[in-house]
Amino acid sequence: MPALLVDIGNTNIKFGLAEAGGLLSSFALPTDRGATPDSLGLALASALPFHGCRPADIEAAVASSVVPPLNPIIEHAISRYLGVRLRFVPTDIPIPLKNLYGRPHEVGADRLVTAFAGRRAVDADSVIVVDFGTATNFDCVQDDAFLGGLICPGLMTSLSGLVSKTAKLPHVALDPGDGALSIGRSTTDCINQGFVFGFADMVTGVTARLKAHLGGDVHVLATGGFAEKLAPICPVIRDVRPELLLEGLRQLWLASSRPGGRK
């Protein structure tokens, strides 16, 4: 029987269905801060059959959240419509990383989960996880310690901010094309080239500085909505894991379900 994995983000709530062998399926619903347990529960219960699963099939539910006001709403929705208790990381399920943040409680659960999953995914002295989400996060793990990182503007967040503050600039679909920079000859082209290559070079430059600071063998992997598009023009990125957060939740669920783990 599958587990339901829940990534409660500022833009979307992403759901994954997983078994011991791996992630089976994933889908997303827009984050609605006005949602009720019924509206969210009905939407979730309606979506599950399209992914080969009935609500009654769900064995367990595990979530990370960066939107605390939604936590009780989603918790009640899953309890009412799926009949299982939603457990949160790291409050209900600990993350086996030493958190070296000055104020550990300030770190978003999403950052800790992706850092944990990145550490488990590769064999290197240090790992840098670049997460292209609402913000662009650079999170550093050395051995089994979460060192911290950098939080930079998100690509789509920046684009939306620019368009909303300017009367004549259009909202464009960003596309790196063949990966070669060209001089834009229309406003749309200028925005596309500026954002795609501007963010690619931000990632390249910031990552180079972090690698120099960390020293040794450093593996850079990327995740998040725009990772697959930007990775080909960011040679520093060695690996793309689009579902890294869900994979981290899957591993934490399995660890908590083993004998001796927290139930």
TrEMBL record:
Cellular location(s): Cytoplasm
InterPro entries (UniProt xref): ATPase_NBD, Type_III_PanK
Gene Ontology BP terms: coenzyme A biosynthetic process
Gene Ontology CC annotation, any one: cytoplasm
GO MF terms held by the record: ATP binding; metal ion binding; pantothenate kinase activity
Keywords for this protein: ATP-binding, Coenzyme A biosynthesis, Cytoplasm, Kinase, Metal-binding, Nucleotide-binding, Potassium, Transferase
Main location group: cytoplasm
CDD domains found in the cross-reference section: ASKHA_NBD_PanK-III
Keyword Metal-binding: yes
Pathway in which the depicted protein is active: Cofactor biosynthesis; coenzyme A biosynthesis; CoA from (R)-pantothenate: step 1/5
EC nos: 2.7.1.33
Record function comment: Catalyzes the phosphorylation of pantothenate (Pan), the first step in CoA biosynthesis.
Name the record gives this protein: Type III pantothenate kinase
Originating species: Solidesulfovibrio carbinolicus
